[in-house]
Amino acid sequence: MQDALMFDPRDTLAPDAPYPAEPASPREGLDARGRREFNKLQKRLRRQVGNAIIDYGMIHEGDRVMVCLSGGKDSYTLLEILRNLQRNAPVDFSLVAVNLDQKQPGFPEHVLPEYLEGIGVEYHILERDTYSVVKEKTPEGKTTCALCSRLRRGSLYGFAEEIGATKVALGHHREDILETLFLNMFFGGSLKAMPPKLLSDDGRNMVIRPLAYCREADIAEFARLMEFPIIPCNLCGSQPNLQRQVVKEMLADWEKRHPGRLESMFKAVTNVAPSQLADRELFDFAGLEEKQARRQADRIDILNE
Questions:
Q1: Which of 66, 117, 240, 286 has its CA 20 to 30 A from that of 248?
Q2: What's the chain's Rg over C-alpha atoms?
Q3: pTM score, two decimals?
Q4: Is 214 annotated as a binding residue?
Q5: Which domain holds residue 291?
Q6: How many domains does the chain fold into?
Q7: CATH number, position 235
Q8: Does the annotation flag 148 for ligand binding?
Q9: Mean pLDDT for each consecutive 10-residue tract of the chain (305 residues)?
Q10: 3-state DSSP assignment of residue 247
């Protein structure tokens, strides 16, 4: 079991722990206070990612982790933090960055290769014209997210097998998980979100979300200070009728008016009581009378002893 744990974040990721070799460097021009704040931010992200990896057994000895790099703030941060932690990990694992070029018009194809070559990370650019398929198949006025996500997942999962990746790492953070929870509640009639670790439906891919404990605001600030070459998505993020954006604004308003509410809601996702819900598959409501009878019989036996 020991090789299933990368490290103990309570030891190597303590707030006063020294940086590993070759730490991330923020943009030039920060004063002493700004650099201290950056150091605190980076250590917090490292600690949260390390805790998620430990809690859910995300990375094991010999894993080849495929980091799905979209060009957004989340995936850049994921790759950088995993690189940072990799240097201190007591187990050996490798990272490979993969970008899915969906052939969106105007996509700057040079940005990611130049960045990845500059930091010395192995990478692949997977070219699939899913953009044309999504635009052709999606009716006017409908959101493209469902089909786009399905096509993107299929392409990336298949490629992970080709390159021998044992884990597929996605950049979803705490708010992504909560947004998905409310989207499923409001529009899907189900109580589910994004799990930190998931086995794909066909059983071939293990998906991990190391940023599950991280706040989006922290990720955005880290990406800003690191000056990652962000590539905006013009396919999904700009859609005016995107329900996820409505839910995102709702959660942001709650957090503004009631600080700490999102943290409490995320804890609820990790602390489920099936007997206090109504899912008959998760809890045996029909058998409660039998359970009651057994307890009463046990109580009588104790009194008669």
A1: 66
A2: 22
A3: 0.85
A4: no
A5: 32-298
A6: 1
A7: 3.40.50.620
A8: yes
A9: 46 38 61 90 96 96 96 96 90 93 84 95 89 72 66 87 96 96 94 95 94 97 95 62 86 96 96 95 95 89 69
A10: helix
